[in-house]
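tokens incoming
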């Protein structure tokens, strides 16, 4: 029975619902909300900064822009008191102070006055730009629990545009004074691996007009006007759907507004791209063989409990690389599916398509052409590369996706060897797999930042049916490889939709590094990260991570009648903060399972720097 489901099973269910495009901020049917919410983690070696974040800013910091505040100054909070069946409006709450993380190195006294700024950039992750009318979406999983579908998904484009606007308005970083030099996306840029979503993503980042609508240009054809009480119908005053019963408002004109054109200013700085499982696979975990369903005219919104359970079981097991279970469900239920307008723009993207679109000069934006990828990547369909972050700082973007239909990650042997070679090329001193010192006198000894979509716990050795001749390598193996190179400062990633910063210590301190996992911009708490790197002049370096919200105002219109692009971006955040069970689990205005503890948010991450200490 669902009511007696063990917590471990609930956590696993959360993972694959998340991977298939659903959010699980609360329990599935019969399971308590607390069982599915990510758990708070303690940081025994975390200490608050001795002075406030403002007091530690160097004099050279640029003037603050008119509205581009970071979460050091203010954060979105739910107003009012928590209660079941209530919708709570957002207010501006207090900021989150800087926390010094000293697990890997002792912070030196007076380092603020000795710092040399090295780099400043922004991380976007898990934008999940979604064509919510796509027939291949599996919203019907909501029958297994309210949290298996996002009420805010129709507003992903408006929300992403507001995030771009915020980055454009940022002044100097609070600890280096440097303006962000670029943005790195760490995957799940789109939700359904479709050509139209990829076009929307590239236009959001580069600038231009986007119409977040597919199928019939005059009629919305998705879950939110289906007449099914399983989904929020914001424009229907008569249907008491599941979400209105728990407090979500009636908003006449919502769907028309959500599908109107939006104009993105595009980023004013260069940006680089890292691929995620939703960029590589439909739904982040399905077979590319399902293309005919994606471009077809039947959208399944309701299935039997048995069919929903069968699909959920296949997702959790990950042993259906050809998505035969879902294919059978879609075929058997075709007669009861909603008829929608077929649209070839929903076709699934191959790795070649994804790379070619990035390399198209029409999508160059602020640069660089390819956004990290080159013609060599296209020729070999290799979705990994290295690039110059700043003087004496190197970035490495890796491809952690399975191509055969699974939401977990891994590295193939060829890419692992390539990664080792790049690390070695920038390290005059490193260690082999047996711990023996290796010297490379020709190396430039650059500080190294590694970027991926998956975080280490989500990387497994599962065979990849699309690359059966190549062994796969998990997160523990990647950690072991990175720890051989003292120049590695951090591994920066996403996928989990959670803010989490993990130290990876080593008996030789210089071989330690940080893993920075950032929450999504589709689920609470809607964050990006401003990241700054400094040399402290004492044998250590500091990586500063400051969370950033979009430019959309915290407060939405009193009567929900602001349906402009800005108003929709504010609604996007507010509806996400009202996900099932989320408000009830917040303490002090923060749900730490998703937003992280204080040391997972705005932090100074100190690490022994460079090979000399190794």
């Amino acid at each position: 029975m669902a009511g007696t489901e063990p917590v471990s099973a609930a956590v696993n269910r959360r993972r694959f619902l998340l991977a298939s495009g659903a959010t699980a901020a609360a329990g599935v049917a019969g399971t308590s909300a607390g069982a599915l919410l990510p758990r708070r983690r303690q940081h025994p070696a975390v200490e608050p900064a001795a002075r406030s974040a403002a007091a530690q800013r160097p004099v050279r910091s640029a003037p603050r822009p008119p509205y581009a505040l970071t979460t050091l100054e203010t954060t979105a909070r739910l107003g009012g008191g928590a209660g079941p069946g209530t919708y709570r409006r957002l207010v501006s709450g207090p900021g989150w102070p800087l926390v010094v993380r000293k697990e890997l190195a002792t912070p030196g006294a007076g380092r603020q006055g000795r710092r040399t700024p090295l780099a400043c950039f922004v991380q976007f992750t898990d934008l999940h730009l979604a064509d919510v009318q796509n027939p291949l979406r599996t919203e019907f999983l909501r029958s297994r629990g309210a949290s298996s579908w996002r009420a805010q998904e129709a507003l992903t484009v408006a929300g992403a545009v507001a995030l771009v606007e915020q980055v454009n308005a940022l002044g100097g970083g609070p600890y280096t004074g440097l303006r962000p030099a670029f943005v790195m996306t760490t995957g799940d840029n789109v939700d359904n691996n479709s050509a139209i979503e990829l076009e929307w993503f590239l236009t959001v980042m580069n600038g231009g007009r986007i119409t977040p609508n597919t199928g019939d240009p005059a009629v919305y054809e998705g879950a939110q006007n289906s007449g099914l009480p399983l989904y929020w119908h914001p424009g229907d005053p008569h249907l008491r759907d599941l979400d209105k019963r728990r407090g979500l408002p009636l908003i006449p004109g919502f769907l028309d507004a959500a599908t109107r054109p939006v104009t993105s200013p595009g980023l004013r700085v260069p940006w680089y791209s890292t691929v995620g499982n939703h960029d590589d696979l439909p739904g982040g975990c399905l077979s590319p063989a399902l293309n005919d369903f994606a471009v077809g005219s039947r959208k399944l919104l309701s299935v039997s409990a048995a069919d929903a359970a069968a699909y959920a079981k296949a997702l959790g097991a990950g042993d259906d690389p050809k998505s035969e279970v879902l294919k059978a469900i879609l075929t058997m239920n075709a007669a009861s599916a909603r008829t929608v307008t077929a649209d070839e723009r929903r076709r699934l993207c191959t790795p070649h398509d994804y790379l070619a679109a990035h390399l198209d000069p029409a999508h160059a934006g602020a640069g660089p052409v390819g956004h990290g990828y080159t013609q060599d990547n296209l020729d070999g369909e290799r979705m990994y590369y290295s690039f110059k972050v700043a003087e004496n700082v190197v970035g490495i973007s890796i491809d952690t996706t399975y191509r055969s239909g699974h939401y977990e990650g891994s590295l193939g042997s060829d890419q692992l060897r390539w990664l080792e070679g790049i690390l070695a090329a920038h390290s005059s001193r490193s260690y082999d797999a047996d711990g023996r010192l290796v010297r490379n006198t020709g190396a430039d000894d650059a500080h190294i930042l590694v970027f991926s979509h998956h975080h280490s716990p989500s990387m497994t050795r599962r065979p990849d049916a699309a690359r059966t001749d190549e062994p796969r390598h998990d997160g523990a193996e990647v950690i072991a490889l990175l720890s051989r190179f003292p120049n590695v400062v951090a591994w920066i990633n996403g996928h989990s939709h959670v803010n989490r910063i993990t130290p990876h210590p080593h008996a030789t301190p210089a071989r330690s590094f940080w893993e920075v996992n950032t929450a999504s911009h589709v689920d609470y708490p809607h964050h990006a990260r401003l990241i700054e790197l400094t040399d402290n002049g004492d044998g250590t370096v500091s990586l500063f991570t400051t969370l950033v919200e979009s430019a959309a105002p915290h407060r939405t219109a009193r009567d929900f009648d602001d349906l402009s692009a800005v108003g929709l971006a504010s609604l996007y955040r507010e509806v996400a903060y009202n996900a099932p069970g989320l408000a009830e689990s917040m303490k002090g205005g923060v749900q730490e399972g998703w937003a992280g503890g204080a040391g997972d948010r705005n932090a100074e991450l100190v690490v022994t720097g460079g090979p000399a200490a190794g």
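note: The longest strand covers residues 116-124.
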